Amino acid sequence: LGGCERIASTPIPFAYSVLLHRTAYAYCMLLPFGLVDSTEFFTPLLCVFISYTLIALEAIANEVAEPFSVAPNALPLDA
Predict the structure, then answer these.
(1) Rounded Cα gap, residues 50 and 35, in angstroms
(2) Fewest CB within 10 angstroms: 8, 71, 74, 79, which?
(3) Among candidates 59, 51, 48, 63, which has minimal Cα distance to 25?
(4) What are the C-alpha distances in Å from 48 to residues 45, 61, 70?
(5) What pLDDT is attached to residue 37?
(6) Which of 65, 57, 55, 60 has the alpha carbon at shortest distance from 16?
(7) What pLDDT does 79 receive?
(8) 17 with 62: CB under 8 angstroms?
(9) CA separation for the pair 30, 55 (Å, rounded)
(10) Is 74 a residue whose pLDDT tops 80?
(11) What is the pLDDT of residue 77?
(12) Cα–chain-centroid distance for residue 75?
């Protein structure tokens, strides 16, 4: 119980989440400029796929940061 309380009371620094968020979105915004010469017509499709993956990873990181919340996918502490 003490270990779980330490995990729950230790927040991830705000700067880490902001850096992850801004880096992912900046990369996604600049990605088409880097791919347009090599992929030409497939650039939009490839950029959407890569952007979706990075934004999903950021959302997963936010969910993992709070394992003891009341969300449906949180750890089942009542069981």
Answers:
(1) 11
(2) 79
(3) 51
(4) 5, 20, 32
(5) 94
(6) 65
(7) 67
(8) yes
(9) 14
(10) no
(11) 72
(12) 19
Query: Strand, helix or coil at 64?
Result: helix
Amino acid at 35: L
Only one residue has tokens 């600049």, namely: 30
Q: CA–CA separation, 64 vs 54, rounded Å? A: 15
3-state secondary structure of 9: helix
For residue 8, the 8-state DSSP code is H
What does 16-54 look like in DSSP terms, one character per residue?
Answer: HHHHHHHHHHHHHHHHHHHHHHHHGGGHHHHHHHHHHHH
Length in residues, the chain? 79
The pair of structure tokens assigned to 78 is 């009542």
